[in-house]
Every structure is written in C-alpha cells, then in structure tokens.
Design goal:
19% of the residues lie in helices and 48% in strands. With 261 residues, it is an alpha+beta fold.
Length: 261
C-alpha cells in the first residue's frame, strides 16, 4: 500500500479508537447503577424494622465508593426516621433500621444511591412502599415455677391454626415473664379469628397464666368500610321510587274524594 493511502486509514482508525479510549478513561464502560431494597412491606405502628440496601454498578465498579441517603415520606411521618440516614463503603451493601410513625398509613422509604470513582458520580433514586398498620397485640404471662433458669425457651405463634413464627425467651427461676407479640400479617376474611401461643421446651417448669403450656386469644377483623359513593347511589335510586309512590297515593286520594251521584 502506498504511503499516501495509509494516512487516510490511520486517520479513520484514530477517529474511532480515540473516543473509545476517552470513554473508558472517563468510566463510561460500567453497568448502570442499580438499587435493591429488601425488608418487610407490612409493619405495625411504632415498630422498628431492619431493611437491606444493595447498590451495584456505576463508576464504583472501577475501585470507587458507594453511598446512600435515605428518608421516610408519607402523610404524617411524626416519629418515623431511618438509622443511619446515610453511609458509604466500597461494597455497596448497607443495613438500616426504620422506626415507624405513630399513625397507620402508607409510607415510602426513599433511597438516593450514588456510585463514585474519582470525579465521576452516578446516582439513582429507589422507592420502597411500606404499609404501616395497627397490629393485633397479644400478651401472656409465663411463669417459671422451677428452681432452674430456662434459656432459649421456644414459643410458637399460630394464627388460625397455622404457625407463623417462633420466638425464644430466657426466664429466670421462680419468676414471671410477659410475652408479647404484635401480628401485622394479612387477615383476608372479616370475622372472628384465633391466635395461640405454645411453649415447646419448658422442661415442665414453664406454664402460661392459665396453668398450661398453651394459651389462645380471639380477635375480630372488621369488614371493610362501605364505599363513600354508596349512600349517594342509594339516594339516587330511592328518591325517584319514593316520589312515584307519593304521586300514586295522592292520585288515589283525589279519586276517592270525588262526589257520587
């Protein structure tokens, strides 16, 4: 190939490779920033729950840092906050505790995550919906009547006969312990339901206040409220019907009042 023909080829290659090298040098060869939030989506008022934030991608994949800022948003966030509200590290994994407000409502945990390397920063906002509800609260007194401390006593919690969790407690000898559980799970059907605590390894020394190793509670789920439009719909139906009945009655009275010859 002649020297005059080589020069245009080199210029074309340079125009292609130079932007590519600049792109790599400025960190444009990374995956987009992604944020995943995991944790309970239904929580009782005033409860404290743990949430996990995982940030990946962005400039930090080249040896930089990940950071986040988290806030709670809702109709009334009095008493609600995130701890810690911000943080940074090189792995992008964070753990936060969220304290729920005093009022039942729908909240949003908003996380603004940033992936950084040098002077290059890429951010993304992720939202996680949390339904804050008034929980069903159950309490029972457990008595250790023995002369030995009991450690790791397992208490099974059942709702309508189905085991939903198990908790462990330590109860010193010759003492009582108030066991409390807040249930925030979904109850589909309105009406009466049953919660039950069962002591699994009391070693013959632990009993509930009723003198047995299990205790039951009844609780009621109210039916959903009527739609706001229903009274208006009923009124729109009844008014014409009542009006027709009144007109018919008045017509009969007029006919009945006529003179007979």
């Amino acid at each position: 190939m002649k020297a005059g023909a080589i020069l245009p080829v080199l210029m074309v290659l340079t125009s292609i490779l130079l932007p590519l090298s600049v792109c790599m040098a400025t960190g444009q060869g990374y995956e987009p920033v992604r944020v995943v939030i995991t944790g309970p989506d239904t929580v009782g008022v005033k409860e404290v729950r743990t949430y996990y934030i995982n940030v990946t991608g962005g400039p930090a994949t080249q040896g930089g840092n990940y950071s986040y800022k988290a806030v709670i948003k809702g109709e009334n966030t009095t008493g609600a906050y995130v701890t810690p509200a911000e943080g940074n590290n090189t792995v992008g994994q964070f753990v936060v505790n969220v304290t729920m407000p005093e009022k039942a409502q729908r909240l949003t945990l908003e996380v603004n995550a940033t992936s950084s390397y040098g002077a290059t920063n890429k951010s993304v906002v992720k939202e996680f919906a949390i339904e804050v509800v008034n929980p069903y609260t159950f309490k029972a007194i457990i008595k250790n009547s023995g002369n030995m401390d009991v450690y790791g006593c397992q208490i099974d919690v059942l709702i309508d006969g189905e085991k939903i969790t198990e908790l462990k407690v330590d109860i010193p000898k010759n003492s009582t312990y108030t066991f409390e559980y807040n249930y925030t799970g979904k109850i589909e059907q309105p009406g009466w339901h049953t919660a039950r605590f069962v002591i699994k390894n009391g070693y013959g020394m632990l009993q509930f206040e009723n003198g047995t190793d299990e205790i039951a509670f009844s609780f009621y789920k109210a039916p959903p409220p009527l739609p706001k439009w229903l009274p208006l719909a009923i009124a729109l139906i009844l008014i014409p019907v009542v009006s027709i009945i009144i007109l018919l009655l008045l017509g009969r009275r007029k006919k009945g009042s006529g003179k007979k010859w």
